[in-house]
Amino acid sequence: MLEEDVIKIKECHEIRWLAFYKAVEAVYKSYHSLVTFFRKYPSAKGKRSIEPFLAMFLDYRFVYMLHCLMDILPAVAQVSMILQKQEVDIASVASAISGLKDTIKISKKGNGYHHKLFSEKIIKRRNEKGVLTEILFKQVKLTFTKATTKEASEVRVQLCDNLCKNVGVLAMRSLSFMSDEERQEYGNKELELLIQHYSEERKVKEVTSPLSLTQRPAGLNGRCVRRL
Question: CB neighbours (10 Å) of residue 90?
Fold first, then answer.
């Protein structure tokens, strides 16, 4: 009916980049269908409201970052798959990491393929005074504020900067040019951060605003959100 391919919505796991990418890809490909579903979904008493999901999907920042992630996550997933092989080829790892760094740099500048696609498909309407009054994406009217576009751009740059910093841990550096003291300490700080991150219990925070890029809709448990 919606003239779109049948897509399975993957469950998103924080430590599985491939699953994370597949989950985001499914949402990206079925965005218009999901919006249509959320608008038609009945708000029956005793059931969780679907409105927070719809509000999130109609937020300009959500759609903007969805395209940004589609530029970055495939390269991240590729590196993840290579590192999970039983016999790792160093040459393949070096090539994949180099490609990931280039992808992040391109995305930071706003020159990613999906970012450009978003810019081409987005329709911005202004009044006679030049003030932005409406933003449309695939015939869907998005919600925004005066600072929305600037905020989305800042989040994209911050995400790319953080990824570059983390990818730096995987950089191939010759130990032969390092002193004995440097070799003893090399990687300890990064390893400590990883151990601390994955050894702590992950807590699901409740959300007060459905429009936040970093929060989940209120009243919905973590499992439901991850399935989206």
Answer: 8
pLDDT digits (tens, 9 = 90+) for 6-23: 666 555 555 555 677 888
Q: Which two tokens stand for residue 180?
A: 């004995």
User: If you write DSSP's letter for every residue of 29-76 in order, what string do you get?
Assistant: HTHHHHHHHHHHS---TTS--SHHHHHHHTBHHHHHHHHHHHHHHHHH
Please check whether residue 109 is in contact with residue 177, taking contact to mean a CB–CB distance below 8 angstroms: no
pLDDT in tens, 91-132: 788 888 889 999 999 999 999 999 999 999 999 999 988 888
Q: Which residues pair with 51 in a beta bridge?
A: none
Domain range summary for the chain, segments of one domain joined by + = 17-227
Burial zone of 223 (CB within 10 Å; 0-12 exposed, 13-18 middle, 19+ buried): exposed
Structure tokens at 107: 């995305």
Burial class (CB in 10 A: 0-12, 13-18, 19+), 187: exposed
Considering only CA atoms, which of 93, 111, 106, 113 is closest in space to residue 167? 93
Tokens 């991850």 map to which residue?
226
